[in-house]
From TrEMBL, chain A:
Keywords: Cell inner membrane, Cell membrane, Electron transport, Heme, Iron, Membrane, Metal-binding, Transmembrane, Transmembrane helix, Transport. The lineage of its organism: Bacteria, Pseudomonadati, Pseudomonadota, Alphaproteobacteria, Acetobacterales. GO terms for cellular component: cytochrome complex; plasma membrane. This is Cytochrome bd-I ubiquinol oxidase subunit I. It is a multi-pass membrane protein.
UniProtKB/TrEMBL annotation, chain B:
The lineage of its organism: Bacteria, Pseudomonadati, Pseudomonadota, Alphaproteobacteria, Acetobacterales. This is Uncharacterized protein. Keywords: Membrane, Transmembrane, Transmembrane helix. It comes from the Bacteria. The chain crosses the membrane at residues 14-35, 41-62.
Length: 533, 76
């Protein structure tokens, strides 16, 4: 078998991680701000007070800046699957490509079309008509996320599909199963409401900036109140769904949950502690120090008092028979490719659930060929492959903890903010206003940690238990990868500089100036129309 | 003239009612099907509507609080 250069795989992973994490700096605001704009405009339509229209337009402008750059950075990722992950795309394209195509065709076009109407339709549409458009933008942007998360859930929990020995790729069994899988649902809601949290903090933080300076009070106090209420409910939702995801990992991705919780050994319920902090050592497979909260782990993860959580040592042990079975599957598959003999197909089908573990063994097989391992070397190959089933524990453990700690902080700060806002006591507590201002980037950071938990925890697989990451990449040269990575780094640095510059500029200018600009634009437009009349 | 206007009004009302009834049926089907197959999707729809309405209500409450303060100031 001809093998892909591990350096190229690492560079492909680095490139994907960078572009994905970068893209996701923009996504949460889009997901959340659209619904906040809809909330503001709803109040405008119901009460008729102009201030809410000003609010929707002002925050809409900041949304627009974020949206434009977010879309641009998302597009490159869709191509990356084809250019850098062609093996993966071949193997899993049927499953992954379908939701991705729906996202492109349905949600993306819906979002983009209505965004245009939202920005330019204020004076051209009726009030309810424009409100409906704003809701459609919100729905469209969240539906985009939905399809991507359905695709991502398929990589984490590949149910509703099987591997076809004739086409040599995964094929759908049930599209409905894929769309309505519990994992897809929980992932979507967790991510969408994480966006609501990010948008709430953004609006609250900038409003706090105005309140601290005594500027634009009418707009800032209302925006702050709305954002604080939006944020407090969203932070409860993000925590609830986080718990659901943890439980799902426990059921479907045991290696991920063991790494998330730093569990090297199977737990003995009910007295197991939850590890608050530790230094997991991936080499020695131990935690160097631990701060524990007694009794919490079992109910937290299993929602029971008597079920154990399997530790990483035991998972490694359990992988042994699966690796052997996977090697049988791949050997039968190769024979079937040559002979098309039904007996080989039957043998493959009997072992196909473990095929991924056979792939995992290729790195350690003589000549990297699992279909020709001499009998006396089989045990050694299996033994060497066993530790490969684990993700990087340190990264998974800590990214999860940062996300969770931040989640707790968001709940606390939104609760205090909502309370003080409801009592009209914000200006009397400048510390809170300052804290919200400085907290603007934190929800974005939490979402990045969330993605690191989900994706680093999925390793060593691109398709969990089916296709290892090191077999998923395209066969590029190292030079090509370095060149494209440098290109992305440069281009994206320009993007982020532009975004930050525009955001700061427009936030500093504030709503009044925004209003003036709007009037100027209107005057210009009416002049234009007038001169043609 | 007035007769036609009343007729038109009546048929518009019927159309509107039919539209609302249809929306209700769709909402019910959605609740039954998605509530069963997609409990979290359903929770997302209901939850998002709730978040939007509560945050909107918060703003309206602020208006009322400020109007209340303004009225008291006027009176005193
Ligand atoms: C506080 C309690 C929280 C818990 C228990 C929690 C739990 C989790 C878990 C277990 C995952 C991995 C899911 C997987 O296997 O793929 C995850 C992913 C994620 N989390 Fe959290 N989370 C919490 C808070 C947050 C917060 C506050 C944010 C952001 C504001 C956030 C954003 C994300 C994102 C974006 C992902 C990746 C997408 C996904 O897999 O759903 N989480 N979370």
């Amino acid at each position: 078998m001809d093998f892909i250069n591990p350096q190229v795989v690492d560079l492909s992973r680095l490139q994907f991680a960078l572009t994905a994490l970068y893209h996701f700096m923009f996504v949460p605001l889009t997901l959340g701000l659209t619904f906040m704009l809809a909330a503001m405009e709803t109040v405008y339509v119901v009460t008729g007070r102009k201030i809410y229209r000003d609010m929707a337009q002002f925050w809409g402008k900041l949304f627009g800046i974020n949206f434009a750059i977010g879309v641009a950075t998302g597009l490159t990722m869709e191509f990356e699957f084809g250019t850098n992950w062609s093996m993966y795309s071949h193997f899993f394209g049927d499953m992954f490509g379908t939701p991705l195509a729906i996202e492109g065709l349905m949600a993306f076009f819906m979002e983009s079309t209505f965004v245009g109407l939202m920005f330019f339709g204020w004076d051209r549409l009726s009030k309810p008509g424009h409100l409906a458009i704003t809701y459609l933008v919100a729905l469209g942007s969240n539906l985009s996320a939905l399809w991507i998360l359905i695709a991502n859930a398929g990589m984490n929990v590949p149910e509703g599909a099987h591997f076809d020995a004739d086409t040599m790729r995964m094929q759908f069994d049930s599209f409905v199963h894929v769309v309505f899988s519990q994992d897809a649902q929980a992932k979507f809601v967790h991510t969408s409401v994480a966006g609501y949290v990010a948008a709430s903090m953004f609006v609250m933080g900038i409003s706090a900036f105005y309140l601290l300076r005594g500027q634009h009070r009418e707009l800032a106090a209302r925006s702050f109140r709305m954002a604080a209420l939006f944020g407090i409910i969203s932070s409860v939702a993000v925590i609830t769904l986080g718990d659901v995801l943890g439980r799902m990992d426990y059921e479907k991705q045991p290696t991920k949950i063991a790494a998330i919780e730093g569990l090297w050994h199977t737990t003995k319920p009910p007295y197991e502690p939850w590890i608050l902090a530790a230094l997991p050592d991936d080499e020695k497979q131990v935690n160097h120090f631990e701060i524990n909260i007694p009794y919490v782990l079992t109910p937290l993860i299993t929602h029971s008092f008597n079920q154990p959580v399997i530790g990483m040592y035991e998972l490694e042990e359990q992988a042994g028979p699966r690796i052997r079975s996977g090697i049988i599957a791949l050997t039968a598959l190769r024979r079937y490719g040559e002979t098309h003999d039904k007996a080989d197909l039957n043998l493959f089908n009997a072992h196909q659930d473990d095929m991924g573990f056979g792939f995992l063994a290729t790195r350690h097989a003589p000549n990297q060929d699992v279909t020709n391992i001499p009998a006396d070397q089989l045990d050694a190959v299996v033994k060497q492959t066993q530790p490969d089933i684990l993700p990087n524990v340190f990264v998974t453990f800590w990214s999860f903890r940062f996300m969770v700690f931040l989640g707790g902080y968001f709940f606390a700060i939104f609760a205090v903010a909502a309370l003080l806002s409801l009592k009209n006591r914000l200006e009397a507590n400048p510390w809170l206003l300052k804290a919200t201002m400085w907290s603007i980037p934190l929800p974005i950071l939490a979402t990045e940690f969330g993605w690191i938990t989900a994706e680093a925890g999925r390793q060593p697989w691109t398709v969990f238990n089916k296709l290892p990451t090191f077999l998923s990449a395209s066969g590029h040269s190292t030079g090509y990868m370095v060149f494209s990575l440098a290109g992305f780094a440069l281009l994206y640095s320009v993007f982020i500089a532009a975004e930050l510059y525009l955001m700061f500029r427009f936030a500093r200018l504030g709503p009044e100036e925004h209003g003036t600009h709007h009037d100027e634009t209107d005057a210009l437009l009416s002049h234009f129309h007038g001169s043609h009349a | 003239m007035t007769l036609i206007a009343t007729e038109e009004l009546r048929s518009m009302k019927i159309f509107r009612l039919a539209g609302l009834a249809l929306a209700l049926v769709v909402a019910l089907l959605f609740a039954v099907f998605v509530g069963d197959q997609g409990p979290w999707y359903f929770a997302w729809v209901i939850g998002t509507v709730m978040i939007v309405l509560i945050s909107g209500a918060g703003a309206v409450l602020l208006d009322a609080q400020e109007d209340g303060v303004a009225n008291t100031e006027k009176l005193s």
